[in-house]
């Protein structure tokens, strides 16, 4: 089964300082058909205006990942972690038994554009953890780069779930593949550019903000870059 999630169909929120597109039900946006995808619970594409941000608030038992596309995101939490996350950086916070944090635009004027991702953990009430790594977009060209994986496998951030998050970039006419295992499920999120995907002879075109989910699928998924703009994407390999 292939599930399409088009960018224009996502839930929308505009708070002035924050414009957000919700892939799954979140806050004031509720759609019973879009409550998550396996343990993948939230993908919000956020744009926070200069000087704005999320004031201190609490979370528990959630793996929270921020992927910064442009601008700067300033983090501070109750565990003593603080820093600025910039384009190409990936931030991970395992809320565990509970943590309070704030995420503010690190600049006074320019917006920060990032994806906020929540994954349900496979253990609860653990000790909160935090990590931040730089995965330059250029380093993702021509190869799959592990951004998050159990126990930090292959250089990824060590989130608490039997799932792997990969990043990949494609330039003009580049192509790549992913081999599908029907005992797993997959989510492909397009960050920018135009992409053609093909599985079993069926071809789809995806643009920035679009996504597809794959369940009970095997075979090889082919991905080809279209048009002029570089494609950047995320690939979630999730438990069935």
Automatic annotation (TrEMBL):
Domain Pirin N-terminal, chain residue ranges per copy: 11-119
Cross-referenced InterPro entries: Pirin, Pirin_N_dom, Quercetinase_C, RmlC-like_jellyroll, RmlC_Cupin_sf
Gene3D superfamilies according to UniProt: Jelly Rolls
Domain Quercetin 2,3-dioxygenase C-terminal cupin positions: 147-238
Source species, domain of life: Bacteria
Family indicated by similarity: Belongs to the pirin family.
Name of the protein described by the UniProt record: Pirin family protein
Taxonomic source organism: Aquilutibacter rugosus
Lineage of producing organism: Bacteria, Pseudomonadati, Pseudomonadota, Gammaproteobacteria, Lysobacterales
């Amino acid at each position: 089964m292939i599930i399409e999630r088009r960018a224009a169909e996502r839930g929308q929120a505009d708070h002035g300082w924050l414009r957000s597109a919700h892939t799954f039900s979140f806050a004031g946006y509720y759609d019973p058909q879009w409550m998550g995808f396996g343990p993948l619970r939230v993908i919000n594409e956020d744009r926070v205006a200069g000087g704005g941000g999320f004031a201190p608030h609490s979370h528990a038992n959630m793996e929270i990942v921020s992927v910064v596309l442009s601008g700067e995101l300033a983090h501070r939490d109750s565990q003593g972690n603080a820093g600025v996350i910039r384009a190409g950086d990936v931030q991970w916070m395992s809320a565990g038994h509970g943590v309070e944090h704030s995420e503010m635009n690190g600049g006074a004027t320019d917006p920060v554009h990032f994806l906020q991702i929540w994954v349900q953990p496979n253990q609860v009430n653990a000790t909160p953890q935090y990590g931040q790594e730089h995965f330059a977009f250029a380093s993702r060209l021509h190869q799959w780069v592990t951004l998050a994986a159990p126990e930090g496998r292959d250089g990824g951030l060590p989130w608490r779930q039997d799932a792997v998050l990969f990043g990949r970039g494609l330039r003009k006419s580049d192509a790549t593949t992913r081999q599908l295992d029907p005992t797993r499920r997959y989510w492909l999120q397009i960050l920018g550019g135009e992409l053609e995907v093909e599985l079993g002879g069926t071809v789809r075109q995806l643009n920035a903000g679009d996504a597809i989910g794959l369940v009970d699928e095997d075979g090889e998924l082919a991905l080809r870059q279209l048009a002029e703009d570089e494609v950047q994407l995320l690939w979630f390999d999730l438990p069935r």
